[in-house]
Each structure stands twice: as structure tokens, then as C-alpha cells.
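Form 7-S
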Amino acid sequence: MNETRRCLYCQRSFLPSRYRPQQRVCGQPDCQRRRCADSRRLLLTSDPEYRLVVRDSQKQWWEEHPDYQKERRKANPGLVQRNRQKQHIRDQKRRLARLVRNNLVLDLKHSAAEVCLVGPKVHRLDRNNLASAQVLILPSVVELSARLSSS
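Output:
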């Protein structure tokens, strides 16, 4: 029974417990934490009864602690600011993901001009499949000055 195994998470070699010959994860706290989290996640997806018990338990806790979030935010103002910043980033990523799904996209990477979208509904562009717009193509300042000096 002295055969070493490689941990699923950290890839280090370890000796399995003689009481648990099927052990696949080493005893490091981080690896054990990940094993427990994966096991719980699997149970939540595969066992409807377990999922109901967990949901009821969470509901009961929130009913017993209705002001938890308010008190936590009051005690940690930095937490509120960090959450706002992260939410802003998540919102931007979501908008960009919606833009990627557009059916019509112009390839402006190779253009020397700068593109600016102007209008009252530009912030809603991510919800459009086809956006009509008036396009103004202005030469860059370098091109314009080069043209003026050559003429």
C-alpha cells in the first residue's frame, strides 16, 4: 500500500491514507478546501433534495439576519467601493459580449481614421443587431497636414 499518488489539484506526490485507499487528493488545506467545494457543487447539481435543504437553510439564515448586508457595508466602506468598481467592469464586459453578437460589423482596424460614435442612443448599441448611423470619416491630423503641405 506504499504507492504514491499525484494530487488532483496541486499535482504533488502523496501517500494515500491506509484507511482511505481510494484517496485522490493530498492533505494540504487548499487541496482539501477545493475537494470539499467541488463535492458540494456536484451535490447541488445532482441531488435535488440536497439542493432544497441548502436553499431552505440559506433562507432561514437570511430571515434571522435581515440587516447583515447593511451592517457589513457600514462597517467596510472600502468593500462598497471595490464592489462598485468590479460591477462597473462586469457591466462593460457584458456590453462588449453583446456587441460581439452583432450580425454586421465593420472592420476598422486597418483604417487610418479615428471612429467616434455620437448620438443619444449610443449607450444602447449593444442591444442592436443592426445599427444605422451617419458615419463621418475624418482624416487624421498627420494626413491632413501632409496633404496641405504638399499642395
